[in-house]
Amino acid sequence: MKPLPRWDNGRDVVLAGDAAGVVAPASGEGIYYAMVGGQLAAQAVHELLATGDVRALKLARKRFMRAHGTVFKVLGIMQWFWYSSDRRRERFVKICEDRDVQQLTFESYMNKQLVRKKPMAHVRIFFKDMAHLLGLARV
Predict the structure, then answer these.
(1) What's the CA gap between 36 and 64, in Å, rounded?
(2) Is 14 helix (H, G, I), strand (E, B) or coil?
(3) Contact criterion met (CB below 8 Å) for 22 and 30
(4) Nearest to 90, CA basis, from 134, 28, 132, 27
(5) DSSP of 60-97, one letter per residue?
(6) Hey, CA dihedral for 94, 27, 122, 111, is it positive or negative?
(7) Is pTM beyond 0.85 here?
(8) 9-14: long-range contacts at Cβ-Cβ below 8 A with a sequence spacing of 24 or more?
(9) How confident is the model over 12-30, as pLDDT tens digits?
């Protein structure tokens, strides 16, 4: 559930979608990323055919990661941390009941990028997360 380090074989194959590992960590969502990856793979193949330069195949992953790499990194860290034990998963579910978390998550999901607005919501979420991590919040 993370983009593979390489999507091409350097000759005549380029991967996209699940085959390229573009399934969002933590949520498992992948249709949008498969479509974008497919489009970028098609563009890379088009450039290969137009130029004869097999290095064009590398452009699919490079362009994808430029556009979506940060989201995959953040979701990967979240998955690694919050899904590491049953106890943490239960706390994560409880955190997800929070209105601020739901609103920011929905906006991020719909726009396929991290939301950086409503600074006070981020501050509130930080303190709520800390309360859960320290065992001060009820589950």
Answers:
(1) 8
(2) strand
(3) yes
(4) 132
(5) HHHHHHHHHHHHHHHHHHHHHHHTSSHHHHHHHHHHHT
(6) negative
(7) no
(8) 9/57, 10/54, 10/57, 11/54, 12/54, 13/57, 14/41, 14/44, 14/45, 14/57, 14/60
(9) 999 999 999 999 887 788 8
The identity of residue 55, as a single letter, is R
DSSP state of 27: T
Adjacent-strand bridge partners of 8? 14
Residue 26 token pair: 């933590």
Q: b or e along 104-115 (b: 16 or more beta carbons within 10 Å of the residue's beta carbon)?
A: beeebeeeeeeb
**What confidence tens digit (pLDDT) does each residue in 113-127 have?**
887 778 888 888 888
At 89, the amino acid letter reads R
